[in-house]
Amino acid sequence: MAQPNEDRSEAETNATIAEQNDRFRTTWGADFTVPGQIMLTRGVADLSPAAKAIIMQRVQTFSEFSESNEPYGDHTFGAFEFEIAGNSYHIFWKINLYDKDYSMGSDDPADVGVTRRVLTILHASEY
Question: Where is the composition biased (Basic and acidic residues) (predicted)?
Answer without folding.
Answer: 1-11
